[in-house]
Amino acid sequence: MYRRFLAAAAAVVVSVAVPATASAQVAHVVQEGETLWSIAADHGLTTGALAVANGLSEDRHVLAGETIRIPAAEQAGGAPSGAVTPSPMGAYTVRQGDTLSAIAARNGSRADQIAWMNGLDPDEPLLAGTALKLPTGAPDATDAPTPASGAAEAAPHPTQETVAPALVEQVALEHGVPSSLATAIAEQESGFNNALVSSANARGVMQLLPGTWDFVQSDLAGYALQPASAQDNVHAGVLYLGQLLRDTGGDEAAATAAYYQGLSSIRNVGLLPETRAYVASVMALRQKYGG
Questions:
Q1: Domain range list for the chain
Q2: pLDDT tens per residue across span 174-215
Q3: CATH top-level class of 1-84
Q4: Which fold has domain 88-146?
Q5: pLDDT of 261-280, one tens digit each?
Q6: Rg, C-alpha atoms of the chain
Q7: With 0-12 CB in 10 A as exposed, 13-18 as middle and 19+ as buried, what is 5?
Q8: N or C, which end of the chain is more exposed by having fewer CB within 10 Å?
């Protein structure tokens, strides 16, 4: 599923003007399962700021072992270094079908930050019409795009759940799909996090687009998938991977590439460089789950 395809200079005023240097940045070696979004969140940055600091697209898949530059918060336009809690900025009015995780993903922040700032239980559903404060660096409510009618209800729905690798392995075995391959893809896509929503609207553990979910539901599943279930997100992703394996004659590398880029895109333009990197990362991750 090919889904990935503002640099602003910040002046820091002190008693003696000193230009920003590379020493203000910290090197971070990407660990298995990390994403650009999760690294940014861990350092109190927006995904956009981290992407700009590294010359990357916000939807770029980062690979284990890759070095990412973590800019100083002042350079990135984020919260001051060492801040314990984010300061509020503006407000966002909850719309029908919104979740904390989806709002956080759209604004480059974290669901637990938004919940803390607004005194909310992150496991409880949001009420339409509720005004939420957003962390510093998140776009104001007036900047937030309004979804098309009905878009908020599109499946699958992100939920505040993570799944164990063993669950993905079990589901893969049920559907006759190589368990190590399915589990590696789940880790690469989301780190087993069903709350993850990409800026291209791919959702859940297996990062399924609504159109892919609908295809699996209508053509592959044979039973009603629950859109708010992390387990059924895994089922849907595994069923889709199984179909890609059939479409590619059982070629696991080709099926993995198609999962990321899309089979029709590969047939039309060939493998993109980022697709090759994605396949290499997935194949490396497989070794954790039996190869």
A1: 1-84, 88-146, 165-289
A2: 999 999 999 999 999 999 999 998 766 789 999 998 889 999
A3: alpha beta
A4: Membrane-bound Lytic Murein Transglycosylase D; Chain A (3.10.350)
A5: 888 888 877 888 888 999 99
A6: 20
A7: exposed
A8: C
